[in-house]
Amino acid sequence: MNKYVKRYFIDAMSGMAQGLFASLLIGTIIKTLGQQLLRISVNPFFQFFVDAGNFATNASVVGAAMAIGIGYAMKVDGLVLFSLAAVGAAANVTGGAGGPLAVLIIAIAAAETGMLVSKKTKVDIIVTPAVTILIGALLTVLTAKYIGIAANSVGKFIIWSTKLHPFIMGMIVSCVVGIALTLPISSAAICAAFGLVGLAGGAAVAGCCAQMVGFAVMSFKENRWGGILSQGLGTSMLQMPNIIKNPKIWIPPILTSIITGPIATCLFKMEMNGAAVSSGMGTCGLVGQIGVITGWYEPSEAAIAHGASAINPNFINWLGLILVCFVLPAVICWLLGKLFRKIGWIKDGDLAL
């Protein structure tokens, strides 16, 4: 069971997230940069940035990238891996707003079926891609639309609930997504699958930042500046071995996320209207913050569908982003960490990487 959990829920989801980074996410950043530069000067080179971004964010391209990422993470054979490009493109387009979840499920099934016949015949170059693509296409026709509808419905419910009850849902979304980020699963893939944008996306960003910045600052005594960089700009997942040894070290970042989530949704009304995958990234490469910023200037299609529109960010927008993503997680988690060390729940060395 552990083998399959790792293969499908850890490896495959992480691969899907990387595929999203290498297409939709970076494409959105490049496109937004080009659009902002075009406001300054109408230059063909700046238009090239927009065109390149459009190529990378095309639904078929994004689906292919996700499926290839899944196959790569599952370590499938070459012909299976290359065939997944067609499967992913079809599943993502057919799945619509819930396409990423459809790609995850269908690409896994097609990859495993392709591996059953890979290198088993003398005409492998025909049999393997044919089986992989045909199974993927069949599953796409039969299920992708409905998987997409289901995923989109869940995402809509979370987004609607967060708008209706920003305080409670701010706490819940921030806490849950933050925990997912530190666990060896992909919070980015989860946010992408359910299309978390808007206030819900902002709460998710807050929760991820609480974990990453919180652990980085709280463990400064043990890990110094290397820990700040590896956890604050890398991943709080590095603390999982220490969490297993002493689960109490996880309480301060979790409490921090419960505090900063409602601050993001209620006080600053911080929305993440860029690519939904950014909601689950936190401060990893500053992708979460870039997602918020790109969402200000060029909201994603998912965000627009939920009523978002482009804005010119004001001082409060920038202040909220800086406080929620950096200052508050650092201060709150550091104070909680000091308290936990004082009462003996965290001992010297418990947070050492």
Overview of this structure, please?
The protein is mostly helical and 353 residues long. It has helices at 2-40, 44-57, 59-73, 78-95, 99-117, 124-164, 166-182, 187-194, 198-218, 220-232, 240-245, 251-267, 287-297, 301-305, 315-342. It is globular, with a radius of gyration of 21 Å. The protein starts with a helix and ends in an 11-residue tail after the last helix.
What are the SSEs and their pairings?
Layout: H1 2-40, H2 44-57, H3 59-73, H4 78-95, H5 99-117, H6 124-164, H7 166-182, H8 187-194, H9 198-218, H10 220-232, H11 240-245, H12 251-267, H13 287-297, H14 301-305, H15 315-342
Helix pairs in contact: 1-2, 1-3, 1-5, 1-8, 1-13, 3-4, 3-5, 4-5, 4-6, 5-6, 5-8, 6-7, 6-9, 7-8, 7-9, 7-12, 9-10, 9-12, 9-15, 12-15
